[in-house]
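Troubleshooting: if your tokenizer reports a length mismatch, compare your output against this known-good record of 151 residues.
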Amino acid sequence: MKNIIRKILKEDQREMYLNKIIQVMKNDFPLFNNMKLYGFYDQLSEDELIYVLSGIFGEPVSIHGNGIYNDGNEIYYEDSNGYWYKKEYDENGKLIYKEFSDGYWKKWEHDENSNIIYYEKSNGYWWKKEYDENGNMLYYENSRGGIRDYR
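Known-good structure output:
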């Protein structure tokens, strides 16, 4: 019985440790480089690393090479030099946001037919489009004053 209690206590301590890593690493990019710098990376088993990364991203993840994936979608990538980007998807698996290590970002909006109806970049450029039910573009406008109206 004592051995069972010790095992449970040891598992609880390990889980508390992993949760502390999640708190420390949340939004501390580049993730892999910083986890190595702080000494966490080499201390974790593969299952523990996946647990930590899932906690950081708030969703179940898998690791393939330098990328982190959720439901087959790449949500994070990092190279050995610390360059990284992260992506967000809507409930239909459409890309809606991408942020890069240099602070640059892009975002997209889609209509119910998966047409991209809005696009914006961190430099201020944007465009928006309207489509008919057949997927034909009816209207286009951008931040530089360009307008095309096919209605």
